Amino acid sequence: HAQDKLVMRRRLRALGIPCPDWAHVTSRADLEAFGRRVGWPLVLKTPRGGYDGKGVRVVTGPDDARDWLDAVEAAGAGGTDGEHGTTMADGLLAEAMVGFTRELAVLVARSPSGQAAVWPVVETVQTDGICTEVLAPAPDLDPELASRASESALRIAGELGVTGVMAVELFETRDGDGRPAYLVNELAMRPHNSGHWTIDGSVTSQFEQHLRAVLDLPLGSTRSRARWTVMGNVLGGDYPELYATYRHLMARDPAMKFHLYGKDVRPGRKIGHVDVSGDDLDDLRARARHACDYLQGVITE
Question: In this structure, are residues 130 and 145 in contact, taking their beta carbons and an 8 Å threshold?
């Protein structure tokens, strides 16, 4: 379920969890038929190996996916898909384009004995397919929708026998009557980028909770430490040496928490994140964005 999107979609459908309309595509004819049914454009995904926008395409017709469809045909004949280094004999996942309001995520933890805990629903902000900001909790979220999304996350964790932390990524939408609704986009059965805010913004971080769950210890409180916590992802830029930049930002904003991962700096690569908590959401977002932009080299003051 964590590694294969087709397996995940089939299981969620069986559980009655709301998901985007989807189809298993193994040929051009399959893709054309699905496009006629749900309308173009649509989203096409490789079942395995995709992340941060990789292995995902928005296609306006079969010609936009010619190379992937050729790879599926070759994989079925014993070949491989060179782009992703993984066989594509199982075909592709096609999904209807969702007209969503914003993206949300629910982080849940479950232990082998069945104890489970869920953090507040958060808003995730994407830029070019990469999560660049997380707002905890999601601002102005309908309480009933938050409750239903949290209940679904807990149910998925229980039905799939999850041990540890799992993130459920959602689209916030509207139903036929205009009421708030949601669709499950992805599952990530691990500590997740959408939960990095918990290191500084929650009584129990996702990493501590993951260990508690794996060891079947009592789970910790998921209560927030502040009214708001904003997490900003630090992406690599043109400046590989970050130490002086890091020192400057620590002095500029002593209340901000910095987490760099020790990765080699490459443009667009996630190399760390910042957390900042408080009562003024707009101020927190501005401070987090400034720090991320400064670390990336987008701004120099």
Answer: no
Digit-coded pLDDT (tens) for 40-90? 999 999 998 766 567 899 999 999 999 999 999 888 744 444 454 455 778
Q: What is the DSSP-derived secondary structure letter of residue 205? A: -
More confident residue, 82 or 265: 265
Architecture of domain 102-296 in this structure: 2-Layer Sandwich (3.30)
C-beta neighbour count of 61 within 10 angstroms: 13
- Terminal-residue alpha carbon distance, the chain: 45
Question: 36: exposed, middle or buried (C-beta count within 10 Å: 0-12, 13-18, 19+)?
Answer: exposed
Distances (CA, A) of 300 to 168, 223, 239, 256, 295: 36, 36, 11, 18, 9
pLDDT per residue as tens digits for the range 125-161: 999 888 999 999 999 999 999 999 999 999 999 999 9
- Mean pLDDT of the region 92-111: 97
**3-class DSSP state for residue 130?**
strand
Q: Would you state the CATH architecture of domain 21-96?
A: 2-Layer Sandwich (3.30)
C-alpha closest to that of 167 among 138, 203, 191? 191
Q: How far apart are the C-alpha atoms of 86 and 75, rounded to whole Å?
A: 9
Question: What whole-number distance in Å separates Cα of residue 35 and Cα of residue 61?
Answer: 8
Residue with tokens 């502040």: 226
CA angle 186, 190, 191 (to 5 degrees): 105
Give the helix ranges, DSSP H, for 137-280.
143-159, 198-201, 206-214, 243-252
CATH 3.30.470.20 in the chain: give the residue spans. Answer: 102-296
Domain with CATH 3.30.1490.20 in the chain: 21-96
Look up the pTM and report it. 0.91
